[in-house]
Amino acid sequence: MEVHHHPQLHHQPKPWKEYLLEGLMIFIAVTMGFFAESLREYFSDREKEKQSIESVLRCLKTDTAKLNSIIAGNILQVKFIDSLLALKGKNLHDSLTNHQFYFYATNGLFVDVYFKSNDAAMQQLKSSGMLRLIRKQKIIDQLLQYEIDSRDLKSQQDDHYLYAQKSWSALDQVIDESSFMDSSKFNLSEYNYDNQTFRYSDPETSYITDDPKLIRLLFSNAATLGVITKLYISLLKGQQEEAKSIISSLNAEYHYE
Hints:
Blueprint lengths: L15 H70 L9 H15 L10 H9 L8 H36 L18 E2 L4 E2 L13 H43 L3
Antiparallel strand pairs: 1-2
């Protein structure tokens, strides 16, 4: 049998520069892949940040609109309470005074207009961890402080509601609530909101107790409610200014305007 021998192939070793070049090419490829992924994540995060900020802006604008209405409602309530307190010491059985008493008491004491912040976007930011995507610490601090102040408002609302209930209870002992069914005595068109004058068409008076202790208790609770309402208005205005400040910061930082 004939045996064939393969010739020995002699490979020349690669120059070290080729190994260096191959290593460099692999390094560049890995590095470029890393930068490409980082860039993709960066643009993805910026898009998520933009969407989150837009949601926050919408919520804050909703809050400012609600605050406008609620502040106006509480200011009007204070006017009614002040008008009611001005009747203290007067003859509540006098026809005009009697009608004024019922009108101011029902509109000043039976109105409770409270604010609840639209915090949907903020809660979403916190629960999803996307709050970290907001680059400016100042804006994060503003949003967190706004949330804290909203909770403080809730505490003031609780105090307001407590004294509103006390006033309702005191009023219940002073007047005859069945009179509320008589629209001739409790028609809002009888009150001029511009100059705060009162007119009425029915000269007949409605029941008011002669018990001075009950009347004094009513005026006392109404006075306290008025003070608490004024403080609440001050807090509402502060919350409104805070919301406007955050909106301004977001518009400036993210160039929405």
